[in-house]
Amino acid sequence: MKGLDIRHVSYRYGERRALDDVSFAVTPGRFCALLGPNGAGKSTLFALLTRLIVADEGTIGVAGFDIARSPRSALARIGVVFQQPTLDLDMTVRRNMRYFAGLHGLSGREAADAIERSLAQLGMAERADEQVRALNGGHRRRMEIARALVHRPDILLLDEPTVGLDAASRQAITDHVHRLAEGGLAVLWATHLVDEIDLSDQVVVLHRGKVLSDGSASDLAGGQGLAKAFLAMTAEGSEATA
Ligand SMILES: Nc1ncnc2c1ncn2[C@@H]1O[C@H](COP(=O)(O)OP(=O)(O)OP(=O)(O)O)[C@@H](O)[C@H]1O
Predict the structure, then answer these.
(1) Ligand 1: which residue has its CA nearest to atom 17?
(2) Cβ neighbours, 10 Å, residue 187
(3) C-alpha span between 237 and 129 (Å, rounded)
(4) Average of per-residue pLDDT across 226-233
(5) Which of 27, 123, 138, 159 could form a disulfide with 83 if both were Cys (CB 3.0 to 4.6 A apart)?
(6) What's the whole-number average pLDDT of the chain?
(7) 208 alpha carbon to ligand 1 midpoint, in Å?
(8) Measured in angstroms, how far is the CA atom of residue 41 from the centroid of ligand 1?
(9) Angle between helices 137-148 and 167-182 (to 10 degrees)
(10) Which residues of the chain form CATH 3.40.50.300?
(11) ipTM value of the model?
């Protein structure tokens, strides 16, 4: 499978079980929201998908490569935007991008073309020569997404990418990333904000390390809307109601 295929993945921090038999898949061309409240296990799953940590059990397939058996090939097919920004504020957008392209083995004309293409995909082409420090938060995030696309990955992972941004910037970013999915990328977007999700998206609800549901946002929303459905699902047995 060209997309992402997660099967029976579990992970513990010592005694604490952070992920418990998690399975789902994201096919190319899909925007999948990984929706879960604080502590659900979203960041842990991202750490497994980027091989910062290794699963205790289960398998992770990335564009057809098993991440445990072929980590280099698998990681080469993934673009990642972490929760914490990782930009050099004193460099221009282009220099930041060039540095990152180099890490993926791109240089010269090939790197320059890849940088132009991915900045254009995020509507950032005209900002290539600006210092990152001069950009607002929304544009910085868009630049990080562009940077994650520079090596033409099949799968784009974003861990709560709109944290701290204003409503207009959040909207612009969610729109851009939905368009990237329409262009053929498999997108996994971790969030606890239901307004970032379109009704045609796939939604995987993660709560206390378990997948509670996996399907279309419209099915999850039913008659009551996504926000209510998500709250009802995750409030049950949570600390807030215990
Ligand atoms: N390094 C760690 N050591 C021990 N427990 C951890 C560690 N990191 C996370 N946990 C625990 O694992 C569980 C899942 O945490 P995780 O950060 O993956 O959730 P999350 O869905 O990303 O939450 P948030 O939205 O708050 O970032 C939580 O119970 C958390 O306390």
Answers:
(1) 43
(2) 25
(3) 51
(4) 92
(5) 159
(6) 93
(7) 9
(8) 6
(9) 20
(10) 1-77+153-242
(11) 0.96
Among protein residues, the one with the nearest Cα to ligand 1's atom 30 is 39
Q: Which residues contact 109 (CB under 8 A, 6 or more apart)?
A: none
Which atom of ligand 1 lies closest to the CA of 36?
A: 21
Total length of the chain: 242
Is 238's pLDDT higher than 70? no
b/e per residue 153-165 (b: at least 16 CB within 10 A): bbbbbbbbbbeeb
Determine if ligand 1 sits within 6 Å of the CB of residue 234. no
Average pLDDT over residues 68-88: 92
Strand order in the sheet with 202-207: 78-81, 155-159, 186-191, 31-35, 202-207, 210-216
Range 162-188 average pLDDT: 94
Residue nearest to atom 3 of ligand 1 (CA): 13
Query: Can you point out the beta strands (E) in the chain?
Result: 4-13, 16-26, 31-35, 57-62, 65-66, 78-81, 155-159, 186-191, 202-207, 210-216
The alpha carbon torsion through 35, 36, 38, 44 (nearest 10 deg) reads -90
CATH superfamily of 1-77+153-242: P-loop containing nucleotide triphosphate hydrolases (3.40.50.300)
